[in-house]
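Reviewer comment 2.1 asked that we show a complete input and output for one of the modelled complexes. We chose the S-adenosyl-L-homocysteine case, as it is the one discussed in the main text.
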Amino acid sequence: MNVYDSDRMADVLAPIGYAATDVPGDADMVIVNTCHIREQASEKLFSELGRFRNMKNKRAENGDATVIAVAGCVAQAAGAEIIKRAPYVDIVLGPQTYHRLPEMVARATRAQAAGGKNKGILDIEFPEEPKFDHLPQIQAKGSSAFLSVQEGCDKFCTFCVVPYTRGAEYSRPIEDVLGEAKIFAAGGVKEIILLGQNVNAYHGEKTKGEAGSEAGLGYLLHRLAEIDGIERLRYLTSHPIDMDDDLIAAHGEIAELTPFAHLPVQSGSDRILGRMNRHHKIEDYYRIVEKLVAQRAELKLSSDFIVGFPGESDADFEATIKLIKDVKFLQAYSFKYSPRPGTPGALMADQVPEEVKVERLAILQALLVSQQTEFNEASIGKSMPVLFDRRGRMDGQLVGRSPYMQPVHVQASDDFYGEIADVKLLSASANSLGGEIVSDDRLTPSFKTKERASA
Ligand code: SAH
Ligand code: SF4
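Response of the prediction step:
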């Protein structure tokens, strides 16, 4: 979501003359967009800021002014502290106020030009009106695009800062989402990844402002799949308790929906799920997986895991390992529990020692790598549609992604860049596959692998 937000900040600033640069020293403004989900991510901020202060001083020697802004969830959670600890920061803004950036930049540059002591602008409000209504029209870039449909969260899992930094749960109206998706499709986007901290809690109004017209993510996915040119749909990140029947059915009904679902579970132990305030038991998770696979036999899952949540015993951890083996997750984001200030988990007495967390994470990740390698090896000899969205390191090499997000390398003409083509998979490693294109009538609808999985 921070990638999406950073792009949108660039869009907001374009009309007042800013464009992105790859050379930091050339920048009239630097925005550090931050993540607060784990401690490691937040800590990076102050070391980054030190670098940018030196850059600001150097540019000042040549008479060039620099605006430094800190955005995102660390700004939301620790805005006042940032201004105090780093007085050279001009602007601190939260994830819900970046549509106001032009006004903040104008104030900061005026203050700098007047030569007065910079006080630092702080805007970490949760505005009544969502920022989406104030952002410029989205532009298509590339063949795969993020589309933010939902933000915030009301679930308050005991380890998580999201409800505090992103605010209350909000869903964008369906007509707005479809409008953006059509702009993407017209600009050559083939794959849309719907984003939300709790994306399957989505309940957008069909018609903007018409309370009572809300529909869920299953309905939205159907409408998106109708758009010409959109050939792949994915959604991130979901909570098991919001996997309703419509959404599960969508996996069998919508060919564009990849047969790879990301469904974070965090732990395989009921005791730990309870302490995490996850509101479901592990049996419920198994039932959801069964229902999804009943809809689409080749569906595979990825997940998120936290090891070393307070009170996690060896038996609790073993339950997580059992779950990973049972479900045969292909991939996962896995983390050591990181106590976050202000969350209930941070105050729990029975914190797990760091060395135990390190050991458990290594065991869990090794298992996931072995399952992924096994799946990649079993893919050899199969054909899969691949979306080519990168050029490889070697001459004439393109890199794309299979429906299971496996990176696939081929030697192919650059005409395939940004396209989907069927590839026969010929070799595999833990992290990627190699293959060759089996069809070159790439501009015909045969490129759409439309057949239903159950067929
Ligand atoms: N809404 C999703 C998760 C969004 S947060 C859900 O309900 O599952 C993204 C991921 O960050 C989480 O799935 C979790 O695995 C990880 N995470 C969040 N807080 C964490 C913490 N305090 N320590 C370690 N990992 C954390
Ligand atoms: Fe965080 Fe997800 Fe729990 Fe919300 S549902 S509090 S985003 S982990």
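Residues 441-455 have pLDDT under 50 and may be disordered. We note this here for comparison with the apo prediction described in Section 3.2.
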